[in-house]
Amino acid sequence: MASTSRLDDPFQIPSTVPSIVHTDAINTTTPFSSQSTSSTSTDTDETSNSSKLSRPQLMSRKSSGTNIIPREAPTEAPPQKFPPDDARAMSPRRSTEETDNMLNSARQSIERRAQDMQSGLDAIATQIETVSKNCESLDRQNQALQDAIGDMTRSLSRESLTSKKK
Asked: What's the rounded Cα separation, in Å, for the pair 32 and 38?
């Protein structure tokens, strides 16, 4: 019978856990003591059930309702007109002319920076071309010098061979 009550009440404390002492009911048996007969174990379960604390009832809450907004509802609040002496009218809001001026000046500065960067890239590209041309001419001169040195060493080796034979 104790096993069915465990399934009925999911918040029931198992019998192996020490029970809490109350002022109105004192449990004199220890839950860790081993009982040899089944009748004494059912007596222990009954006394531990009477000493359990009952869980307080949950308070009921009022439903908050649904938060459904119809499609036809406006998505933004309509703009408000404030009198000139109202602090909200004195906030640092900019007019469309001011924002357009700021946009145009920012656009012009970005275009200037882009043109400066483009001219810098063009200068780098021309410098790369001149350096590559200089490198090619130096490679040709280096090859010509290597050929000249090779010709000299061959002619010297021939002369030395011919002079030794005589």
From this structure: 15
pLDDT values of the chain reduced to their tens digit, one per residue, 166 residues: 444 444 555 565 555 555 554 444 444 444 454 444 444 555 555 555 556 778 777 777 777 777 777 788 777 777 778 777 777 766 667 788 888 999 999 999 999 999 999 999 999 999 999 999 999 999 999 999 999 999 999 999 888 878 777 6
pTM here? Answer: 0.36
Buried b or exposed e, range 111-123, using 16+ CB within 10 angstroms:
eeeeeeeeeeeee
How far apart, in whole angstroms, are the C-alpha atoms of residue 93 and residue 95? 7
Amino acid at 128: I
- Report residue 92 as tokens: 């640092």
User: Which helix (H) or strand (E) element contains residue 114?
Assistant: helix 96-165
- For residue 125, CA distances in Å to 28, 93, 114, 121, 142 come to 97, 47, 16, 6, 26
